[in-house]
Amino acid sequence: MPVEGIFCGFSAGSPPEAAISAVFLLLLLPLVSAQTYHWGPCPTPKVQPRFSLQQYLGRWYEIAKLPASFARGKCIEANYALRKDGTVRVLNSQFYKDKVRYSEGTAVTPDPREPAKLGVSFSYFTPYSPYWVLTTDYTGVAVVYSCTDILRLFHVDYAWILARSRFLPAETVNYAVELMMNEGIDLAKMKLSDQSGCKD
């Protein structure tokens, strides 16, 4: 299904569960107000087999994503580079409110047996958030998913379609969308990113 053809859908749980979740939503409103959240625990999609971090390093451009409060601009890209200590430097950039803005974080591989399941943090004070590479050919496209359970009552998730160039053919975007939907990821709020008029 094309990104433009995805419609918003939301199904609530039973009334008591919905009431409890509503309380938590109010408490966590600053966190989830600009995110995508759903009732129930996170889905568990399959990730890239035999993932190679070395091949994944470098620059990726954002083609489409679920809403994220930290990425509201245009010309969004991420650059991954290996540090001497074995962690990965994550440098995100976007053009927002008339200037280029940067944010630097760190990515790690919590379990070497599952190299496609990374964790990313942009602050010393926040835990690592999941960063799962569902699929990539390393040279053209990558599909990434992140999900956090809130007491298993609901979950907040992110999803990205990334590319090595600022634009992807529609059929490649549709392939990435279908892959995520087949893994049980709700893409009703996914939107195409603006990569027009950007400076390389």
Automatic annotation (TrEMBL):
PANTHER family assigned: APOLIPOPROTEIN D
GO cellular component term of the entry, any: cytoplasm
Molecular function per GO: lipid binding
Family annotation (Pfam families): Lipocalin_2 (PF08212)
Membership in a protein family: Belongs to the calycin superfamily. Lipocalin family.
Coiled-coil stretches noted in the UniProt entry, renumbered to this chain: none
Subcellular location: Secreted
Record GO biological process: brain development; lipid metabolic process; lipid transport; response to reactive oxygen species; tissue regeneration
Signal peptide span: 1-34
Residue span, Lipocalin/cytosolic fatty-acid binding domain: 53-192
The species this protein was found in: Tetraodon nigroviridis (Spotted green pufferfish)
Sorted UniProt keywords: Pyrrolidone carboxylic acid, Secreted, Signal, Transport
Full protein name: Apolipoprotein D
Subcellular location, principal: secreted
Lineage, uppermost ranks: Eukaryota, Metazoa, Chordata, Craniata, Vertebrata
